[in-house]
Write a structure and sequence with these properties.
Radius of gyration: 22 Å
Largest sheet: 8 strands, antiparallel
Helix content: 25-40%
Length: 484
């Protein structure tokens, strides 16, 4: 929307625009600060610099204001403010976001990181979680009742960005994606309204936020379906020499096809880190690993996952019984705050020997020893949802390759970004198309990437975008341009 708007009190606010250098008039910022239960942070405030630090160390942006919201009314006030002043608007959830869209230069950041309440109804097997929650916040609350909802694989990940773009995790084959288990959401739309989105109410909006990203509003809270999982699970975590990659990856595929294993394995190609869990002589050695969480009884899980561990002689087998919250955090140390990250993804319809050889060669050529190529085995519950039942597309592809550039030194950025791009370009020759928009690089391909990510759902999403955000206020994301 443009021009003057009426606020919820019926008044027509004076719209003092930002100055030529991007500064927001102090009087207007003071008005917003007075409306918030939370805090409004400005450059020079003690908490401003920490507030603009993101998990991905490649991102360095300077917003004019950061609104630390404490509830959906705070979020609505901040949306009104950004819209009325024509400010760039970014939304920050609770954790990781590899593309760095949680900040903006010279605009307003709606920061949900203090909205971390989780309310569990163990009888109904549901949980409502604030938009600033991480996986760890939700898992701690639900595991008190032996319940879980499908989320990601690193506990510091924010549930908001994860769920809105699909949400692939250890439970994807047994219980589906995060967005498949979303029952309702409270959404602040571009006109400042606070709506409930669910199957019976604002159904078009509910369809769109299950995979369509942050295009349609700010989700202040999520209600999830829960499943009996834990409190202990069996976790497979076994590392083989990379020259056994064909055997390991193909045998994993065969095991999944021949037996109904309720686990979602991830194959990983990388290099052994210098860590006490591994034999000293193996440091730096290329590996192929299989990681999988069995969501049922741990003893049954050990039996079911034994074929994955017995494929070949391992470098190290770190498998065992863990608390579910422990399994959810196994990978945390590999993704510390402040490291530099650049990830992209591509789907594939099969895992032939030639493709496995290419994957292995690309992983060995990575400039950083911390980089990996991850092979997500799809199917199961996530594939039983139709391609157009939710906005999330590419469900029918049996494999997703995540190419993860992870490094430390700023001077190494160009080489690592080039490795990811070159690897993905090569893998596309084995792909029928598609990408997972939680692994999007920096979204530099624009609409072409959006069409790959949303597939046949793109045009419907563009129409819903026009209904809820016709002026594209929410554009700092995997953006869908409104089409009426």
């Amino acid at each position: 929307m443009s021009g003057k708007q009426r606020d919820r009190g019926g008044r027509t606010p004076a719209v003092d625009r930002p100055t030529a250098d991007g500064a927001v008039p102090r009087a207007r910022a003071d008005e917003l600060a007075a409306r918030l239960r939370g805090r409004l942070l400005r450059p020079g405030d003690p908490d401003y610099e920490p507030a603009r630090e993101l998990w991905n160390g490649m991102i360095d942006k300077h917003p004019a204001l950061v609104a630390r919201c404490r509830g959906e009314e705070d979020v609505a006030a901040a949306v009104d403010f950004a819209r009325d002043l024509g400010l760039p608007l970014a939304v920050r959830g609770g954790g990781h976001g590899v593309a760095g869209q949680a900040l903006c230069d010279g605009g307003l950041v709606i920061d949900l990181s203090e909205m971390t309440e989780v309310a569990v109804d163990p009888e109904a097997r549901t949980a409502r979680a604030g938009g600033g929650c991480t996986l760890a916040d939700v898992d701690r609350a639900t595991q008190r009742h032996g319940l879980a909802t499908p989320l990601g694989v690193v506990s510091a990940t924010g549930i908001a960005g994860l769920t809105l773009s699909g949400g692939m995790g250890w439970l994807r084959r047994s219980h589906g994606l995060s967005c498949d288990n979303l029952l309702s959401a409270r959404v602040v739309t571009a006109d400042g309204r606070v709506l409930t989105a669910r199957e019976e109410e604002n159904a078009d909006l509910f369809w769109a936020i299950r995979g369509g990203g942050g295009n349609f509003g700010v989700v202040a809270s999520f209600e999830f379906r829960l499943h009996p999982v834990g409190p202990e699970v069996y976790f497979c975590n076994v590392y083989f020499p990379a020259d056994r990659a064909r055997e390991v990856l193909r045998d994993c595929e065969r095991c999944l096809a021949e037996t109904p294993v309720p686990a979602g394995p991830i194959g990983v190609l990388g290099r052994i880190p210098e860590a006490p869990e591994f034999p000293p002589g193996s440091y730096g050695q290329p590996f192929v690993a299989l990681l999988a969480l069995h969501p049922g009884d741990p003893a049954a899980g050990e039996r079911a996952l034994l074929p994955f561990r017995d494929i070949a002689e391992p470098i190290a087998d770190l498998s065992g019984v863990l608390p579910y919250t422990g399994a959810q955090s196994v990978l945390d140390e590999e993704y510390p705050d402040g490291r530099r990250y650049y990830w992209k993804s591509v789907y594939a319809d099969g895992l032939g020997d030639e493709l496995i050889d290419r994957l292995t060669a690309h992983a060995a050529a990575a400039p950083s020893a911390d980089s990996t190529i991850d092979i997500w085995y799809q199917g199961g519950a996530m594939a039983r949802v139709g391609e157009q039942e939710t906005a999330f597309a590419n469900r029918s592809s049996p494999y997703l390759f995540g190419v993860e550039g992870n490094w430390t030194a700023a001077d190494d950025s160009a080489a690592n970004v080039a490795w990811v791009r070159d690897t993905v370009a090569d893998l596309r020759s084995y792909s029928g198309g598609g990408t997972y928009l939680n692994f999007p690089g920096f979204l530099e391909e624009g609409e072409q990437l959006m069409r790959e990510g949303y597939g046949r759902n793109y045009e419907r999403l563009a129409q819903i975008k026009a209904a809820y955000d016709p002026d594209n206020l929410f554009r700092l994301n995997a953006n869908i341009r409104p089409r009426g």
